[in-house]
Amino acid sequence: MRIWIDCTAAAHPVVLRPVIALLRERGHEVEVTARDYGQTEGLLERYGIPYRSFGGHGGAGSGAKARALARRSTELARWARPRRFDLAIAHGSVDVAAVGTALGIPQAQMQDYEYAGLQRKLAWRAARRVIVPDAIPIERLERAGARAAKLIRYPGLKEDYYLADFTPDPSVLADLGLDALGIGPDRGADDRVLVVVRPPPETSAYHAHNPLYEAVIDRLVADPRAVAVLIARTAGQRQAAAARADPSLIVPERAIDAQSLIACADLVVSAGGTMNREAVALGVPVLTIFSGRMGAVDERLIADGRLAELREPDALELRKRDAEPGPVSPRDPALLADAALEAAGGR
Question: Which of 207, 243, 281, 300 could anchor a disulfide with 159, C-beta 3.0 to 4.6 Å?
Fold first, then answer.
């Protein structure tokens, strides 16, 4: 079977990596496309996944988003038409919805946040199968455009699946120059607290203004015990953080092994979703400063005491992590691959 997988944000190569590998192992021909946005292309390159890149992010404005969608979908349609794909798989790509519908390609869409914007709802309506965590109530999914008949609900977090085979690589610390700051693989030998920070998704429709993010950065750089690594989403975020010129605030310029960094960290503070849940899946303490509407997955994690909300920077406690990290509840990613294949009749 000929399968098209589209990656439009940095989380998508991470989530879809084991699905791509499993489909290829089963003999399917898989082609991957990407969008020039954040670290999407860099992560595909890190994983050794060949791809074709089409278009970029339209920015925060709805008009610019619509124009970018139209341009990218037109380019993708020209590319996809002669390939006669049997199935398209994505994690919320509206381009797959537009092109797949126009070309009659069956679609499977993954997602773990039910309050995304109009484009995500259109993607769910176009898909034959919508693959989601069972923590999200069906009524919320139906209001967002995913009818119960097309839902495939899986247990746990999506991170439990793609991190199932994960082994941390502590060399990420030296790669980032953290060893020069006294932070090495033997985390018990130093007394500085390593914090991984993820900024808000400022260009996403579901994002609300988040003044807490900058206040958290101020709090971290003011504390001599803290060393922070900021994993920026956009060039603007990267430039703004680098402009602080603070040696205790590390801002990588390229895609890095973020999962290994999280595993080596004492704390994660994130205004997004995936990095929060990666920390949860690896047993690393994590605080959310997400400013949008809280989704059901995070609501459950908070209720279970696996994720905590940070409401003011002064409440941020810096302490060394006690437990060793590692996959807490690893799950077989074959479940996700099988679910996606159901959109094409399970072939």
Answer: 281
In the chain, CATH 3.40.50.2000 sits at 2-164+331-344, 171-315
CATH no. for 2-164+331-344: 3.40.50.2000
pLDDT recorded at residue 208: 53
Helix 94-103 crosses helix 118-126 at what angle (to 10 degrees)? 40
What is the Rg, in whole angstroms, of the alpha carbon atoms belonging to the chain?
20
pTM equals 0.90
* pLDDT(343) > 90: yes
What pLDDT is stored for residue 207 in this prediction? 46
CB 101 within 8 A of CB 80: no
Cα–Cα dist 179/174, whole Å: 5
**210 vs 259, higher pLDDT:** 259
Instruction: Kindly tell me if the per-residue pLDDT of 112 is higher than 80.
Output: yes
Q: How far apart are CA 329 and CA 181, in angstroms?
A: 33
Residues for the chain: how many in total? 347
Predicted confidence (pLDDT) per residue in 98-109, tens digit: 999 999 999 999
Are the beta carbons of 34 and 65 closer than 8 angstroms? no
CATH tag for 171-315 (out of 3.40.50.2000, 1.10.8.190, 3.40.50.720, 3.40.1550.10): 3.40.50.2000
